[in-house]
């Protein structure tokens, strides 16, 4: 037998989830000091440009919860009882006035009894329980009160009973009473551990029509019943003492007999004993007293309390997915979010948004962009670092092109030997065309479109070139706390990653050493530098950084040394012969002297030096200018956002010994693009 249900999977023609935006955002957060795990959670929380995040879903859950509480009050059943009672009394008085054959004493006694009814609907219904109604309409209205109470009480425990028992016969009520008896017997037998699967099957075969949840065993039946019964109890807890007392008194009149309440009380006791973990003692604050609110009957109110419980569960699930409380992301992820429950409460669109987040998270895990190290921590893989670096490099290229106010400038003929490879022409390329490949592309294209032009710009391919020389590059980046304090931490990391990507992808013969220097200096892998947290320790040990840079140059005696120094402060610490770090502020003369000595050593090794000065400190500017003049180097003072473009441009210029390397003036970026092909990828 085939079964069908409404499709809720979103747009079936939607493209696969794109993780590029997520990887860019995660990479930026990692550079800002977040762990990859936290960076992933932050992106899932925020969402993307066209993707709702967990925070948005949590906000909608909170708004839905607030709306339910503000829009409803809990006196719906009492109001219905009051209206039916007023109708019964009014119709009875009309009948008494019309009946000319009635004894005057009897009429007076009846009118007096109706006139002196208690203000409480429950007390009035009890008072009229034995009244001999003269009006048929009045009698029917009063019987409707008893029928309404019975249906509402059943609807509290069994969703849909109020509608199912409308205009019910005595046989229908007897069947319900029998179902309640059998249900209590089954639950009590289960509590003693004496029930069997056959007992459950027999019960469902006889009474299954009352359970639309279609439970498959006693435990599922218990879960469904206990959740609704607990919601009913929370509804009573949420009422005022006066409302609660009225309903308790009225309940005895349900179906004209206390037998129903006895059965329901027995059921509640069984459910509380078997499912004590349900919230039986909670309550909510509804919008009572507000004339704009809608009164809820007992059944509808219980449904709303169930909705509120679902919304609370969703809020907890979304909070757990956003911040698993220190647990690793692998053990607390988006699979915890109940999509069916989300669709019921917020609609299919919200469920589709959550499913997309689940798919995005899965794609991030399976894309090879992140992996767990030996310590169990999640980290970006080299593949992810390359993708992030390429994106940063493209941004650098755009900034450099825009800074010059013209398209990319590349001079053909100065790029070195042809590599034998070709690639499609891109805007700004000035490399020589590969004519055979270009003509062949045009011929092949015209075979498919005979009426097309002989040659199109899309047919053009250019020749790639190889480098003529190798370079040993030392990028020394200031990692003192002032870099983070002044908002230069992330641009510094982005600069290092862009340069690392450029050299690793286009200038593979060059050797790059990344050196971070704060209170002391150390060589770092790109993964270490990008994941480096801001350090509170003060100190700028340029002396130690230059020592490491010169060691790198000596390891590559046949390469052109290129020294790039990014800093926002004067040297305030140096490395002593004992290996200890000496710190002093203002800078000690010995600290300056040792830094100058190592800079002179770099010059003797043939290093082309560029300083990138960040900030407007006059003392720093004077110091950097004097250092640059001493080694015939250059100084560039970029804004933080332009740091990557400045460093990459200086490297490309230094590689070919032209402007941007030796002899470029302060603030000049020189020939940023070198002439080595389309380096931005």
What attributes does this structure have?
single chain; 681 residues; 25 helices; alpha/beta; disordered C terminus
Describe this structure in words.
- The protein has 681 residues and is α/β, with parallel strands linked by helices.
- The protein has a 6-stranded mixed beta sheet with strand order 11-10-9-12-15-16, with helices on both faces. A two-stranded antiparallel sheet has the order 1-2.
- The radius of gyration is 40 Å and the shape is elongated.
- Mean pLDDT is 78; it is low at 326-332, 403-416 and 658-681.
Distance between the termini: 56 Å
Report the sheet with the most strands, covering strand number, pairing sense and barrel closure.
6 strands, mixed
- The number of helical segments is 25
* Unreliable residue runs: 326-332, 403-416, 658-681
Furnish the topology, listing elements before pairings.
Layout: H1 20-31, H2 36-46, E1 47-48, E2 51-52, H3 54-71, E3 72-73, H4 76-98, H5 104-115, H6 121-127, H7 136-157, H8 161-164, H9 170-191, H10 197-207, H11 218-238, H12 241-251, H13 259-274, E4 294-295, H14 298-322, H15 339-346, H16 348-366, E5 370-372, E6 378-380, H17 382-404, E7 418-424, H18 435-448, E8 461-465, E9 471-478, H19 481-485, H20 489-506, E10 511-517, E11 521-524, H21 526-530, H22 542-555, E12 560-567, E13 573-575, E14 581-583, H23 589-604, E15 608-613, H24 618-630, E16 634-636, H25 643-655
Parallel strand pairs: 3-4, 9-10, 9-12, 12-15, 15-16
Antiparallel strand pairs: 1-2, 5-6, 7-8, 10-11, 13-14
């Amino acid at each position: 037998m085939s079964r069908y249900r409404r499709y809720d999977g979103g747009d079936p023609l939607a493209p696969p989830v794109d993780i590029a935006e997520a990887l860019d955002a995660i990479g930026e957060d990692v550079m800002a000091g977040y762990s990859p795990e936290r960076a992933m959670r932050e992106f899932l929380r925020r969402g993307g440009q066209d993707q709702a995040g967990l925070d948005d879903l949590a906000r909608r859950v909170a708004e839905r919860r607030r709306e339910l509480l503000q829009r409803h009050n809990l006196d719906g059943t009492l109001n219905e009882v009051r209206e039916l009672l007023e109708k019964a009394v009014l119709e009875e008085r009309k009948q008494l006035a019309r009946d000319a054959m009635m004894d005057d004493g009897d009429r007076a006694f009846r009118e007096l009894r109706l006139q002196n009814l208690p203000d409480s609907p429950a007390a009035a219904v009890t008072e009229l329980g034995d009244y001999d109604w003269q009006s048929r309409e009045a009698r029917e209205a009063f019987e409707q009160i008893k029928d309404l109470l019975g249906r509402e009480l059943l609807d509290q425990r069994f969703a849909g009973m109020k509608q199912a028992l409308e205009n019910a016969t005595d046989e229908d009520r007897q069947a319900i009473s029998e179902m309640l008896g059998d249900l209590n017997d089954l639950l009590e037998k289960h509590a003693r551990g004496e029930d069997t699967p056959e007992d459950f099957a027999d019960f469902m075969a006889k009474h299954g029509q009352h359970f639309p949840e279609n439970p498959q065993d006693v435990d599922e039946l218990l879960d469904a019943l206990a959740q609704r019964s607990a919601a009913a109890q929370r509804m009573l807890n949420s009422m005022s003492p006066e409302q609660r007392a009225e309903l308790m008194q009225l309940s005895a009149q349900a179906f004209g007999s206390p037998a129903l309440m006895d059965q329901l009380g027995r059921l509640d006791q069984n459910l509380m004993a078997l499912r004590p973990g349900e919230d039986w003692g909670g309550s909510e604050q509804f919008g009572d007293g507000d004339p704009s609110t809608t009164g809820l009957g007992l059944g509808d109110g219980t449904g709303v309390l169930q909705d509120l419980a679902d919304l609370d569960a969703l809020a907890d699930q979304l909070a757990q997915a956003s911040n698993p409380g220190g647990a690793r992301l692998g053990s607390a992820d988006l699979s915890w979010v109940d999509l069916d429950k989300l669709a019921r409460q917020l609609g299919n669109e919200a469920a589709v948004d959550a499913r997309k987040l689940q798919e995005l998270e899965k794609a991030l895990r399976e894309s090879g962009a992140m992996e767990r190290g030996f310590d169990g921590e999640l980290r970006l893989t080299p593949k992810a670092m390359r993708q992030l670096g390429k994106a940063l490099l493209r941004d650098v290229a755009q900034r450099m092109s825009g800074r010059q106010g013209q398209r990319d400038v590349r001079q053909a003929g100065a790029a070195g030997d042809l590599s034998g490879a070709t690639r499609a022409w891109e805007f700004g390329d000035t490399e020589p065309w590969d004519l055979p490949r270009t003509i062949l592309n045009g011929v092949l294209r015209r075979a498919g479109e005979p009426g097309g032009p002989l040659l199109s710009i899309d047919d053009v391919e250019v020749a790639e070139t190889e480098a003529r020389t190798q370079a040993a590059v030392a990028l020394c980046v200031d990692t003192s706390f002032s870099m983070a304090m002044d908002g230069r931490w992330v641009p510094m990391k982005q600069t290092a990653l862009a340069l690392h990507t450029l050299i690793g992808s286009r200038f593979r013969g060059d050797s790059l050493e990344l050196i971070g220097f704060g209170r002391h200096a150390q060589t770092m892998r790109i993964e270490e530098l990008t994941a480096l947290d801001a350090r509170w320790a003060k100190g700028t040990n340029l002396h130690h950084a230059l020592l490491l840079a010169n060691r790198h140059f000596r390891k590559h005696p046949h390469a052109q040394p290129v020294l790039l120094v990014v800093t926002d402060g004067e040297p305030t610490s140096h490395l002593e012969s004992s290996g200890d770090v000496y710190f002093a502020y203002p800078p000690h003369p010995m600290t300056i002297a040792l830094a100058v000595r190592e800079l002179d050593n770099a010059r003797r090794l043939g290093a082309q030096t560029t300083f990138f000065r960040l900030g407007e400190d006059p003392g720093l500017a004077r110091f950097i200018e004097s250092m640059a003049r001493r080694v015939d180097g250059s100084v560039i003072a970029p804004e933080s956002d332009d740091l990557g473009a400045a460093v990459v441009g200086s490297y490309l210029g230094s590689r070919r010994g032209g402007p941007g390397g030796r002899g470029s003036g302060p603030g000049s970026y020189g020939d940023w693009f070198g002439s080595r092909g389309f380096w931005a990828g």
